[in-house]
Description:
By secondary structure, the chain is mainly beta. 0% of the residues lie in helices and 55% in strands. The protein is globular.
Amino acid sequence: QVRLVESGGGLVHPGGSLTLACTTSGFQFKYYAVGWFRQAPGKEREGVSCLSASDGSAYYADSVKGRYTISRDNARNTVYLQMNSLKPEDTAVYYCHAVLQWDYGTDYWGEGTLVTVSS
């Protein structure tokens, strides 16, 4: 049974930091590119960051570049998102995503974790 479980969301003040984790099971994590999406209230889901399965290349949306860092631990089947200098506009439900490196039709989603940036 495939599972992706996000954790680490919560309420943080502007300028603060959070680290999200997505622990997975039920598939061969090391062969999957992994990433994070987010969906703010009333907006469409958008890609935030992703990390390849093979060469370690990473992508960041312009809105988070320089503030967010994605990483993975293949031994723990877990992907992380370190978020610094958080802004109110970062408020959203953050979703973990995994896609098979050579078959983009095979992918999985987590259920999301809420991040609220507010004073």
